[in-house]
Amino acid sequence: MGRIYDWLNDQVRNPKIFGSRLNDEFDFKGGITINNDTSNALTPPTQTTPITSTIAVGSTYADSGSGNIFQISSWVDNSGTRSTVAVFGQGRATGANGKAWGGNFVAYAGAAGALAQGVEVDYGVAASISSQSAFGIAVNLGGGALTGNDTAGLIFDRLSTTPQIKDGIRFNAFLGGNPYNNSLLTCAAVTPTFGIDFSAATFGSGAFKSTGFLVDGAGGVHAAAVESGLVVGGTAAASALVLQSTTNGSPSGDVVAYRGNTQLFQNPGGGTTFGEFHPSGGFTVGSGVSDPGGSGIATVNVLATNVQATGLVSAGGAVSASTWFNVAAGTTGLSSLRINSGTAPTSPVNGDIWFDGTNLKMRVGGVTKTFTLT
Prior knowledge:
Layout: H1 2-13, E1 16-18, E2 28-35, E3 51-58, E4 208-210, E5 213-215, E6 221-223, E7 245-246, E8 255-258, E9 263-266, E10 275-277, E11 282-285, E12 298-301, E13 305-307, E14 313-315, E15 325-327, E16 353-355, E17 360-364, E18 367-370
Parallel strand pairs: 1-2, 2-3, 7-8, 14-15
Antiparallel strand pairs: 4-5, 5-6, 8-9, 9-10, 10-11, 11-12, 13-14, 16-17, 17-18
């Protein structure tokens, strides 16, 4: 081992070329240069600045055979417990404004149908053995405190303004089927400030997109579900949905809480208020809306009214299975039913009841009857 080490040191101090000569036009400063292509001069890729390298290996291939061509190979097998690394690289930028890389890989595709991958990581676990762990890429941070330092675990960028990255991260399935049996993205029990921070980005169509679901760049949620676009569940400690207080005049279809969080308005269109909830439990249908009864304004006390899916209705009490509309008993301050005065229907039908301001009338057997006053 000592002789090999001395020999390598000698090669670094006295650069030598194995295989072929260096291209005269290429400014290369190296220690050991190995060229497997003996028919041509060693011509590394075009560089705008000189390259300084301790060991340089270069070859040119036109081989379409099976298997892989490895320019440099390294592998280890360890049956013990000590950490074993096949290839190790460390870069330390110890000078002001210095730059250092632990590894630098460049790949270019220069022909139709060609595939270039800067780094390919293949990993796996042995069959029929449990309690194994395998990670394609593990990024571990070390060193001092994070305050005042930029420490991104993974960065995507480009070397010039011309190319555009199509997908920052893509999850493929080259062999078909579904290769993912858990989550595309997951994390441990951590407490970050934000899960995902897109506050500095400007989106064309949306910040998040899924099947039938889209969050646009302004934070609007667009959903197309079978039953409901938004399903939110509340708990005893947290409400399902909180609407902050605002002012009226919202776009058509908006639901807003305003006037000091005391009323909830829904706007169906044309600047018309459809209805409002009151703190006392009442709900008012706004004027100018074509409601089924054509009354224009109707007030329903939500807390004291029970409308079941079967159509049974009660006012001031429980519904009754023997009547469609069950009214609570009157009191000294509250009558059971009040019919306000109005005009007679143009074409009354049997069962209609109305009060014209003087007489109470009812349509019976095709004839309008007047209740006799005593």
